[in-house]
Design goal:
It is built from eight helices and eleven strands. α5 runs parallel beside α8. A hairpin with a 2-residue loop joins β2 and β3. With 225 residues, it is of the alpha/beta class. Helices cover 30% and strands 22% of the residues.
Length: 225
Amino acid sequence: MKKIVILTGAGISAESGLKTFRDSDGLWEGYRIEDVATPEAWQKNPTLVQQFYNERRKAVLAAKPNAAHLSLVDLESKFKVNIITQNVDDLHEKAGSTHVLHLHGVITLAQSNVDPTLTYAINGWELNETDRCEHGQQLRPHVVWFGEGVPNWSLATRICAEADFMIVIGTSLKVYPAANLIDYAPKTARKYIIDLDAPIVENEFVIVQQAASKGVPELVSMLLA
C-alpha cells in the first residue's frame, strides 16, 4: 500500500472558523506572541496565558471539520495515510483520520508544569490555576511554545522519509522546524502544496493555489480515481 504523508497548517482550520496562528500585524487574536506563547510569558503571567488558551480551547471545541479535513479521511481506503499537523486543534481526529501526529501539542489536553510527559484530558474548555498534576504542580496547556523543543520531531522526519506522496496543506512553510519536513521526503515522492498563498518551493512540488476546502477534495478525487 502506497504511503501518503500530509503536512497541515493553520490554513486548513481557518475555514472551520479558527483564526490562523498569526495575523498580518504579527498578533494572535490581538495578543503579542511573546505575551502568550513562550515559557517566559508563562512564568511572568500564567493567569493571562491560561485565559488565552482557555478561549482558544473553547473555540476549538465548538469548531467542526470542513470539506478538506473530511476528504482526507477518504484517502485511507486506498493509501496508508499519516497526517502531521502544526495545528493544536483536533479537527483531523473529529473528521475521522486515524493516524495524526501533532507537532505542537493538542490544546484539548493539559500537561504537567514540571513533567511534559504527563498529560491529562481537560473536562470542558477551562483549565484552572488550581488544577494540578500528580506531583502537585500546576497544569499548563499541552502546547509547544516558542523556545521549546518539538518532542515529535524525530518521529515526523521518519514518517516523511517513507512517503510515496507528500501533500502540504494550508501552511506558508515559514514556521520552523516544521517547514523543514518537506526536505525529508524522498526525491521520488510526488509532492503537492495546496494553499491560497502557496509558497514557491523547490523539490518539484505541484502548486495548487486554492482554499483547502476546494483544492483538497479535488486532489483526493484525483488520487482515488
